[in-house]
Amino acid sequence: MDVKIAKSWKPILEQEFKADYFKNLVSFVKKEYSLYTCYPKGKDIFAAFDYCSFDNLKVVIIGQDPYHGVGQANGLCFSVKPNIPFPPSLQNIFKEIESDIGKPIPENGDLERWAKQGVLLLNATLTVRAHQAASHQNKGWEKFTDTVISQISQYKKDVVFLLWGGYAKKKAKLINSQNHYVLTSGHPSPLSANRGYWFGNKHFSKANAFLKSRNLPTIDW
């Protein structure tokens, strides 16, 4: 695994790449990818940073770890490649967008279009072994992605953070809520959504209303 991260993020994160924990993480990931099928593809591990530059960043959405089914993960949380059926959480995200802002459910679930507008689609863990959820947790990824969140909080202003579910909500402690707009709700997974913790949160219209109030471009969800 070569750490090739987009230029705009290098000054923000280069210290992390020199840290011992990160070197150990790289060794672990390289070994896993050589012994097992892992997702996403090596070139897509840092896709969230490739598509969303630090300068253009407006919204952060935090996921837990990549999809572990064949061909699903593309390096952006909740997103799948164009020809892959929507996983249940993504389906519920699109349903909420439809009821919140009236936008019809799209033909494909590739959220690259959001990322290019300034939405950082960040999984807390950036890799996973095929068919083994959470298999790369607690190996160092969380330390890295927590630093990403802290650095955004420190060096940016007026970023919208969408924290869905218990795991993502814990990241609120890394964010200065005086300088940013933090929205929380249940997770879009069926387990949470069907109990009434997701639908109706109106996060997509609220995010855009905040951006508009700061004279920033809104997101075409």
Automatic annotation (TrEMBL):
One of its GO terms (molecular function) is uracil DNA N-glycosylase activity. One of its GO terms (biological process) is base-excision repair, AP site formation via deaminated base removal. PROSITE patterns: U_DNA_GLYCOSYLASE. It catalyses: Hydrolyzes single-stranded DNA or mismatched double-stranded DNA and polynucleotides, releasing free uracil. Its main location: cytoplasm. Its EC number is 3.2.2.27. This is Uracil-DNA glycosylase. It comes from Aureibaculum marinum. The gene is ung.
